[in-house]
Amino acid sequence: MIQVENLVKKFGEFSAVKDVSFDVQKGEIFAFLGPNGAGKTTTIKMLTTLLNPTSGKITLDGLDPSHHKHAARQRFGIVFQDPSLDGEQTAYENMELHAVLYKVPRKVRSGRIEQLLKLFELWDRRDDYVKTFSGGMKRRLEIARAFLHTPKILFLDEPTLGLDPQTRNQLWTHVKHLNETEQVTVFLTTHYMDEADRVAHRIAIIDHGGIVAQGTSQELKQKTNSESLEGAFLALTGSTIRDEAATSADQMRQVAKMWSNRR
Amino acid sequence: MSAIYILWLRELKRYIRSKAQIAASLGQPLLYLLALGFGFGPVFEKSGSGNYLQFLSPGIISMSILFTSIFSGIAMLWDRQFGFLKETLVAPVPRIQIMIGRTLGGATVAVIQATIVFLACLLVGFRPAHWAMIPLAFLFMMLIALVFASLGTAFGSVLQDMQGFQLIMNFMVLPIYFLSGALYPLTNLNKPMAIVTHLDPLAYGVDALRNILSGIAHFPLTLDLALLSGVAVIFLTLGAWLFSRIQL
Questions:
Q1: Is A160 helix (H, G, I), strand (E, B) or coil?
Q2: Could you give the CA distance from residue B142 to residue B140 in angstroms, rounded to a whole number?
Q3: Which pLDDT tens digit goes with each residue over B65-77?
Q4: If we measure between CA atoms, which residue out of A237, A245, A206, A244 comes closest to residue A18?
Q5: Which of A35, A46, A140, A212 has a beta carbon 3.0–4.6 Å from A120's, enabling a disulfide?
Q6: Of B6, B89, B248, which is closest to A100 when you measure between CB atoms?
Q7: pTM above 0.95, yes or no
Q8: Nearest chain A Cα distance for residue B31, angstroms
Q9: A69 contacts B83? CB cut-off 8 A
């Protein structure tokens, strides 16, 4: 379903992704793990047409996303690291807007929205503004929205960041359920090793822009003689801490937080 | 087409729902209208230039269009930082449609805002020269709104943070406003001032509205129309181009 061959992305002199190759089968849940700044998000951005690769080949469901942008976009759903909902609109309106943008036929639109909002336990709150939602509710809504146009592939970029264990648990249950019932291929990144261990069929570990190991959780543990996936991860990537510089988006978010607390 | 419609509708919903914003954005034009209208009124009349309120009202209407439409474009900054822009940019929709939907939405909001200001002008004593010309005035309001909503989209596409917003406010929006002749006649200005004001696209918008609503003209109406249309095409193209280059 996803084939990546010798993918490279350079920003000036700096190579964010160097020579990455992997294959994800149809219906598989594939986890992409790595420390901060390892190249996870850059890879997802290239897979989802937001960045053009410097070199290498990507195939999504038989399509080259850089040549068939819209056809490729129609085939996947994405949940970004940061929320991408419209807070000034209701949950239902957010779903509707997505349905229009992704050309979900009018006939099935309302039925599909209702089904997904009910599945993610948001139906009762459908007419509330998204800005009044908790972090977990927003995440659920985003995942529900990503499924709306029945994508063949679902990209999840750290979808459980900042959520409590209950919410995380419930989220993955839903994702697994939809993976089984709708045969959606899932490509995810996370910092929670236990999640990857539990939901992913196969795992790739990326560091400094390159894949250092891939296989099932079991294989990775055996390879590194570790008890847990976390142990395997640390054995493969070392224990140095990677600091990321705050972006202008982070700064804006802080300002916004200050303002919204005043209300 | 449906993508353009749904994004246009979103801009409209956002406007109608934020009552505080509507009230706040009416404050400034009303202040200008009342403080300047009644403050400078006596001097203006003594100089033999006629009723200042009749002169000023079309300028204040233009001002509210300028501010509202440019800000609607710059509001994209928030959508960019809080992610909603991404949702639209990864959708299987050509970017030009997204840009047009947003820009038309911003322009529509500006015209609604201008209508409220127009009603406020009537309330304080402004009287249009010919009521039958009101539809023509609305045509020009839409054109002005389109010009500056496109410019707003262009700014919104390149701005990364709020600091840039201040820069645009002080070096673009306010000069466009103060040099447009919204507050004073463009006649008898010294040479440099005359040149600068003639380069300001809003000057032609203000002039057209003043011509239609108050019967006072500096340029021919056909020149206003041609110039505004030309600038609208240029700014729309510029906005679309810059919007298409947004990288996340």
A1: coil
A2: 5
A3: 999 999 988 888 8
A4: A206
A5: A140
A6: B6
A7: no
A8: 26
A9: no
Q: Tell me how far apart the alpha carbons of residues A50 and B176 are, in angstroms, rounded to a whole number.
A: 35
User: H helices of B215-248, where?
Assistant: 221-244
Q: What are the sequence ranges of the domains in chain A?
A: 2-262
The tokens describing A174, both together, are 């839903």
Is A69 an 8 Å CB contact of chain B?
yes
Strand A55-60 relative to strand A2-11: parallel, antiparallel, unpaired?
antiparallel
Residue that the structure tokens 């990364």 belong to: B160
Q: Is A236 on the interface with B (CB under 8 A)?
A: no
Partner B contacted by A84 (CB < 8 A): yes
**What is the per-residue pLDDT across A128-146, written as a single tens digit (0 to 9) for each?**
999 999 888 999 999 999 9
Q: Using the predicted structure, report yes or no on whether residue B130 has a pLDDT greater than 50.
A: yes
Does domain A2-262 fall into CATH 3.40.50.300?
yes
Write out chain A residues lying below 8 Å of B92, CB-based. 69-71, 73-74, 101-103
Which chain B residues have a beta carbon less than 8 Å from that of A78? 90
Which of B203, B15, B183, B2 is CA-nearest to residue B97? B2
Touching B: A residues 154-213, CB under 8 Å: none
**What distance in Å separates the CA atoms of residue B160 and residue B78, rounded to the nearest whole number?**
10
The residue ranges of every structural domain in chain B are: 2-244
In tens, the pLDDT along B66-122 reads: 999 999 888 888 888 888 998 999 999 999 999 999 999 999 999 999 999 999 999
> Looking at beta carbons, which residues of chain B come within 8 Å of A105?
none
Nearest-angstrom CA–CA distance, B145 and B103: 9
How far the first Cα of chain B sits from its last, in Å, is 25
Residue that has been written with the tokens 């103060």 in this structure:
B178
* pLDDT grade for A262, boundaries at 50, 70 and 90: very low
> What DSSP assignment string belongs to A133-144?
S-HHHHHHHHHH
Chain A residue numbers with beta carbons less than 8 Å from the beta carbon of B74 are none
